[in-house]
Description:
single chain; mainly alpha; 0% strand
Amino acid sequence: MSNYSRLWESIRIHVSNIRKIETGYFVNSNEDLKVSHRTAQLFILDVFLHQHREKYGAGLFPLRGKNTLHHAILLKYKWPLDYIRNLSLSDALLTLQDELTPENLPEAAQKFLSGVLERASQIAFDDLLDDEWNPELGELFLHEQ
């Protein structure tokens, strides 16, 4: 199993647990499809932040957890850190919407994503819970990519 597969599965399980939704490969409910859609969104975020971490967080000042997301927004908008830190996850993703696309990911991640996106339909949750994203998962599974 690749690191991308492990990351995908960990995100899927985490979102399912936060939402209290039972999912599985043989479950074909709207809730399961929503979990897959959210998993795709958070997978793209984690891979994007992994690239950002590699570019800007090397050496003596590594970027960890939410600081990587905050740093990406800081570089793009130059907003005060207090303002950035108070953004909801939904608002933070909105600020990076133009960058959080499969085309901006490494080729291997794009390839993986194209294989799983069929399940990640456009059926989506109406809201984005801050707890759905675990910033440690991307760091855990992508450090070797």
